[in-house]
Design a protein that fits this description.
- The structure holds two protein chains of two kinds.
- Chain A has four helices and no strands.
- Chain A has a single domain, classed as Up-down Bundle (3 helical TM bundles of succinate and fumarate reductases), CATH 1.20.1300.
- Chain A is mainly alpha-helical.
- Chain A starts with 19 loop residues before the first helix and ends in a 5-residue tail after the last helix.
- In chain A, helix 1 crosses helix 3 and helix 1 packs parallel to helix 4.
- Chain B is mainly alpha-helical.
- Chain B has one domain: Fumarate reductase/succinate dehydrogenase, transmembrane subunit (3 helical TM bundles of succinate and fumarate reductases).
- Helices cover 77% and strands 0% of the residues of chain B.
- The chains are: A mainly alpha, B mainly alpha.
Chain lengths: 131, 131
């Protein structure tokens, strides 16, 4: 007998009570979209600029070093690390583990702390800071 | 119940589980995410360890097979994972079948075009067709 009830739909942002787990879930989606749209577009542009030689690369480099360019690149770096860390957390929960309230909450917080630290470390390194 | 099948036998009998398909899509997203965990880490580590980020150094890095091959994989798997992820987002919020089809098809075209541009650039670098 087929179910006649309407199939469940994804909940929208408005019905959730704010907490680390739902925030990380939403961040995972938002950072995924940012990486898919801006990240991959910039990756393709960067590779094309490299292939076309110094003049094309100078255009890319100028845009990347502009204030807006730096904000976008730092944002994408953070998006990358946030998506990567919450992606790992996702794989763990997909296996059925880490649904206990304590570890679920602390691992969610850990992805945000980790992504911010990794972003700072990476940009410090790129700007020439060495231990 | 085969790999990627999205409902259990009892779920099938009761008409529950995925409304159409989706198990394989879900699994593909996980498999590509594991690949991107490796390729993304390689990409970040490479940028950190290169002697410089000037276009000459970057081009030399991507001309060599050790740079060109992982980067080509990153492009292909990255665009595939982005496309799968965007489909989840679209399917969650665009329920009207016509609009859903149009948006998902548009995203497919954009992803294939983006990957083609990036791969062309890599080939031009590796085989020296461009300047």
């Amino acid at each position: 007998m087929a179910s006649t009830r309407p199939r469940p739909l994804s909940p929208h942002l408005t019905i959730w009570r704010w907490g680390p787990a739902m925030a990380v879930s939403i961040l995972h989606r938002a950072t995924g979209i940012a990486l898919s749209v801006a990240g991959l577009a910039i990756l393709a542009w960067w590779l094309m600029a490299l292939a076309q030689g110094p003049e094309a690369y100078a255009v890319f480099s100028k845009a990347a070093h502009s204030p807006i360019g730096i904000i976008i690149l730092v944002g994408l770096t953070w998006s990358f690390f946030q998506h990567l860390l919450s992606g790992i957390r996702h794989l763990v929960t997909d296996s059925g583990a880490a649904f206990e309230l304590g570890i679920n909450k602390s691992s969610a917080i850990l992805t945000i702390v980790g992504s911010v630290i990794l972003t700072i470390l990476l940009w410090a390194w790129l700007l020439g800071v060495r231990p | 119940m085969s790999i990627g099948d999205s409902s259990t036998p009892i779920g099938k009998a009761q008409g529950l589980g995925s409304a159409r398909e989706g198990g394989e899509h879900w699994l593909t997203e996980r498999v590509t995410s594991i690949a991107l965990l490796l390729l993304g880490s390689w990409f970040i580590a490479s940028l950190l360890l290169l002697p410089g980020l000037d276009p000459h150094t970057l081009a030399e890095w991507l001309k060599a097979p050790s740079g060109a091959i992982p980067m080509a994989l990153l492009v292909v798997v990255g665009f595939k994972h982005a496309l799968d992820g965007m489909k989840v987002f679209v399917d969650d919020y665009v329920h009207e079948p016509g609009s859903n089809f149009v948006i998902n098809t548009l995203l497919l075209f954009l992803a294939v075009a983006g990957a083609a541009i990036a791969l062309y650039a890599l080939a031009a670098l590796a085989f020296g067709g461009a300047q």
